[in-house]
Every structure is written in C-alpha cells, then in structure tokens.
C-alpha cells in the first residue's frame, strides 16, 4: 500500500491578453491561467496526479487557495483505497458540511473539488496504464453509477435508469473503442473567430480551418451587430456553404436582445448560438430557444453543476449541451451530466480551448461515445490551437479530428518547465 | 476629499459547533464565522466601513482570500466619488472580466463582492449619520434604480418598471418611517428548533419564544421523519394553536422525498417549508410547491444571485422569498431582489441568524417596508439569539420585534476585542 504524501499547488498564468487570443464580448483581455494541483504518493513508482482549474487571470490565486483547503482530505490517505472508490471521495469532498456553505456546489469551491478529483483520476489512469477515456470506457455500468451522486437528480434520472442506459450501451463498446482509436473524434475550431482579430485574419484563419479538415467554425458575436454581420459575411464567403458556422455571445445579452440579434443573423445559416445570456438563466434560455427555433441554443461552459444542467434539459432550454472539464466537480459530475444528456436525447459538444481544456475533455467525449451515448451524430469537441505545447502529452488534432490519446493518464499534466516559467509572482506592470 | 487607504481582512471563527447551536440536517457542526473586511480612509473622521461574509467554518480563509483579491479596486480611490456612486462601483466589481470567470456571479467571488460593497454602505451610512435602512429609505426612486444592474433581469423587470414601483411607494414613506421607529419590524425565531437540541430544550425554548412575544417559530427537519413528527407534536403542544410553526429542511431532500415528507407533516399546520431541496433547483421547487399546496415553499439563503431569484419568481417556485445579507453581491443586489419580489407580489421574510446576519438584514427589511413594498403583511425577519454581543451596535429584539436601529451605519461592525479573540490561527485540535 502507498500513502498520498504530497499535495502541491501552483498559480500558473500565461500572458495571453497581450495577443488578444481568446477575446470575446465579455472577456476582452483574458490571461489564460491554471490553478494547478499535483498529488504524489510514496509508492516510489514516479506516478503523480495532475489537474487544474482553468481561469482567465485575476483571482487564480483565490482558486488556488480553494484547492489548498482540500489538502486535508488527501494527505496521509491510503492511495489504493482512495483510487478504488472515487465516488466515495467525491461525496466526502462535496458534502463537507462547512465547505459546502461556500457554494453550495458552485463557483470557486466547487471547481476546486473538480481539480482534486481530476488529479486523482489522472493518477489512477496512470497507475492502470490507460488513457482516462479508455479506463472509463472499460468500467462496468455498476462501477460507473457508483461514481455518480444522484442527489437532486432523481426527478429526472434515477440510479436504476442510469444503469439501464449504460447496460443498453454495453454491446458494441469494443467496436467503438476500435473506431475511436482508428479515426479519432470530430472537432470544430474557434481559432478564426475571436473578436480581437482583424477581418483579414478572420478570413485567412477561416480558410485555413477548412483546409485543415474542420467542418465547423465558431465566431464570437455580441459586441456590435454591424460588426457581426460583416464578420459573418466574411467567414461565410471564406468557408463556403457546406461548412457550419456557429456563433457565441458569451452571455452578452438579455433575453429580448438575444432574440432580436439572432433573428438578424439567422440568414447566415447559424449552426448554433452559444451562451446567449446568463448561464444561470434556464428559463431565459428556454424562451430564447422557443423564439429563434430552429437555430439551436447551446450553453454549459459556465453551467455550475449537474442540477443546473438537469433543469436546462427539463425546460428544453438547450439543444446542444457543452460540458467543460474544470467548471464542475470533476470527472464524476461530468459523468452525471453525460448520463442526463443521454436520458434527454441531447447531443454533447464539449467546450474546450483555454489552457488544457482540450487535453482533458477529449477523454470524456470519447468515453461518452464508447459507453454512454454510443453515437457521434452531430457531435464534436471544440478545438483551439494554443498553449498545447505546455503539456506533457498534448492533444493531437489532425484532419479536423481529435486523435485518441494513448498515453496513460488524463492528459492534464503540464510540463515542469512551463509551470516554473509561468508561475505567477505578483501583478504584471500592465495589470 | 479623502482617499481609501486601508483595506484589512480577518478570518474570524466562533467555535459554535461545541454547543450544537445551528445544527440542522445538512450542517451538523457549524463554526459560525466571518470573512471580515475593514475599510478606512485618510479623512481623519474616525469613520470606517465594516462588513463580512458569513460562513460556517472551514473555507473561511478561502473567502478571505477572495475579498483580498478586490483590494486593488478600492485602495487609493477617492472615497467621496466611490461612495456617491455605489452603483458604479458595484458594476466595476461585478464586471471585472477576469474575476467574473470564477462565478460568474455566484459562490466565493460573488460573496466577496458583497462584503466589499456592504463595507462601503456601512461607511457611507456612518458618514451621513444615519442607520442604513433610513439612508436607503430616503434615497429617491432614481437614485435607487441607479444602484441596480438590470442586466439579465429585463425579461422580468425593467428599469422603468422598477422606477414606477418605487414612485408608487413614495407617498407614505414618512409615516412608515415613523411606524418602524415606533414599533419596529416583526421577527420570528429559530432558537428552539435546532436538530441537536433535546426534546426538553425544544419544549422549553418554544414556550419561552411565545412568552417573548414571537408569533412564529421554526424547526429544523429532514433527518428522521419519526423525530420530526415527535418534535412537531412537542412544539405544537408547547406553543398552542395560534403560533405559526415553520419547518426548514436545509436542502436535505430530492423532489419526491420533499413531497412525501411534507404530506406526512401537513397535519401540523405548517407555516412554510424552507429549502426543501437544492437551492439551485428552480423547477424542483416549483414541482414541490404545486404538489404540497397550500403549504408555502420558501428559499433564498443559498440563492446565488438575482438571476436565480428571478426564475424562482417566474416559475412560481416560492411563495415566500428569503433574502440574505451576505450571500449575494451586497446591498445593491438585494435591492434588485426586493424589487423583483415587489413586482411579483411575493412577501419577503429575510434569513438571519449565523453571526451578524440579523444586524445587517434588518436594514433591508425596514427599507423594503418604507420604500418598496410598503407592507408588513405576513412579513417577518428571522431571529436567533446568539453572538450579538460581538457587535458594536447589536440587534435589539423586544416583544417579538426588531427595534429600528438608530446608530449610523449598517450594524455590521464587530467589536475589535471579538475580532482579536476569535481571529483564526490554524486548525482546532478537534477539527
């Protein structure tokens, strides 16, 4: 047996605001950052668990402090016992009666639990010598439902219904694993569409996206309707009629604004409108979805937890569901969300980008295909091509598809040199 | 002119878990705590702004770190300009594009904004020589709506509608101020009802509550149906048929549990069921409310923000709305919530207790009566009689009513001796 003996955090910030990568209507100058955690045991096998919460700069220190608050749950624990019952650990972290007050189940404290849980999954996958997607895809339906806390979900999805869904997807798992390993998982790209880019850069990157094999691009919208109309014309001209163009308002609008604005953009054959309004506004999204049908509404990257996703599904407030690797309480809660999506028959197109989000979330999408939904129909993972070089096993996207990771782990281990170089040591001169 | 020159935080924790005060179905052992902030200027007038986020122990340090992250917004600022435009300051804090990512508008970072905003209100009220409720009650309708950010609210309440509501309540303000100053504001008490108390203590405290003039008491429920039935019998016998008994499940149930459990308790003439399930579950509360009518459903102390309250009102998911002084982003957001409640014709019965929550929230209830709703019908503020001695101007409840505070400020200044004595310096031996 081994003990968890190290629990180390880092405040890692990349100065992305200097290049306007990642700029949108609500986030003009993000500094992509990671509140990072590393967990090590005394096993002497050199294996560690690495994970993080993605943030966009200021406040990354607060997120680190929240992760640090969870150290007492891990340090000194029997690693084998913890890793064999990650559902139990999830519940202990989530139901700490005092820490729970700080959410409950939302915001900084909730994401901190996600980082810790995901670091444990990274360690477990490394110990089992499998990439995370495959580890999850090979768990039995019983093992999978044991990972999920069905509290607050049972009016929409019970443990038994989840078991039934997973059992129904058991036939064909091996074929789907082979398919993923051969062909990867479809991607779409947001690289051309940041608001801070010039028209020329938008056109050039849109053409490059098609040449690279992507079948969907995404544009940020919501700052100026005139600009959006012009940029959509440019993008549509660059990609032609067969490539899907989605738009993303990053929560910029009120309900009536969203309806009006999207009616003005509808003629460009919009693949979806993402985050039209507050991520908390289930009923608002439902009203928008009804008003602008058939344009699909999507959200999720800021959706706080499985209880909010449940309501988005119950209210038919989204047609495409976007999970995020670090917004909710880790792999376990994302499995709950994938099960909810399957129950409601809604397709999942994960949010990614930032730093390290592609590396992590691809595992969940591939797991979903193999063991939950069993389909790739209309599904794709967001891809943005930056900051991958900081990871030990970076995402590989070729021909518009994520190639199946084969390295053991969750893909979320950052290179030690990158951590050392971008460790935050105080405010930048321009901050 | 003066500058804000000091921004000091404290991690203050009271070891309340040792006595089981505050124990309920989800919070067996709270240590009532305050993530505390003190703001001072160089005006030389000795006036300071004090406020805090209430937490229940572990993680109070994380909450303090989040408040600290906001110091750059205040230190060095012109105090008169800041205090004259607290709506503007609220927007600047809320729309920091990087910090916003940590919520958005929920959890640790959102409550931190609340503490900073509330400290500024405390300072402003002290400078104007008025208790906060009276300062607010004497602002014009235009000044009040300028304090509110209507983003994400306009499908339920526009600025113009809010103005109309406030103007309609202008006649009679002076009479209502006089009424509040003469008679105070009704209270109810939770003191008898903590789960950790013995039956004898429950009966004794219930009788004392009636003798003290309270017309409603509240019992914690949800751990065991048999216990709840027995404790309700004891309480009903102790208080007689004319005193209202509310119950509080502290988020213990799923939707179907809540319906079943409340049907079993219905014969005790329940004044309301509070927090039957997850505070995020608008649709779940709506389903419960429909199923157990006419028992009123109430929630709010964990409701993250005005957007969630908007939906609770739109979905008719609550019949009584409970604001909290430190859960949302301060006085400004609570004004938005009071306006929403007025628009939907729902009564407000503030959550209080903890440490310092009574001291703060009474101001909002009294302001609401004078300038927003204009009524006391069915309204009362929760009261729990502990930890008041730590405040410079503690809440005074007599004859079952909160007496109107007359001291300048928001009432949220803790005694320096208490801060020094209960400043947290590391884990307790039993933690």
TrEMBL record, chains A, B:
<dbReference type="InterPro" id="IPR018110">
    <property type="entry name" value="Mandel_Rmase/mucon_lact_enz_CS"/>
</dbReference>
<keyword id="KW-0479">Metal-binding</keyword>
<dbReference type="InterPro" id="IPR029017">
    <property type="entry name" value="Enolase-like_N"/>
</dbReference>
<keyword id="KW-0456">Lyase</keyword>
<keyword id="KW-0460">Magnesium</keyword>
<dbReference type="InterPro" id="IPR013341">
    <property type="entry name" value="Mandelate_racemase_N_dom"/>
</dbReference>
<dbReference type="InterPro" id="IPR013342">
    <property type="entry name" value="Mandelate_racemase_C"/>
</dbReference>
<protein>
    <recommendedName>
        <fullName>L-fuconate dehydratase</fullName>
        <ecNumber>4.2.1.68</ecNumber>
    </recommendedName>
</protein>
<feature type="domain" description="Mandelate racemase/muconate lactonizing enzyme C-terminal">
    <location>
        <begin position="199"/>
        <end position="295"/>
    </location>
</feature>
<dbReference type="InterPro" id="IPR046945">
    <property type="entry name" value="RHMD-like"/>
</dbReference>
<dbReference type="InterPro" id="IPR034610">
    <property type="entry name" value="L-fuconate_dehydratase"/>
</dbReference>
<dbReference type="Pfam" id="PF13378">
    <property type="entry name" value="MR_MLE_C"/>
</dbReference>
<dbReference type="InterPro" id="IPR036849">
    <property type="entry name" value="Enolase-like_C_sf"/>
</dbReference>
<dbReference type="InterPro" id="IPR029065">
    <property type="entry name" value="Enolase_C-like"/>
</dbReference>
<dbReference type="Pfam" id="PF02746">
    <property type="entry name" value="MR_MLE_N"/>
</dbReference>
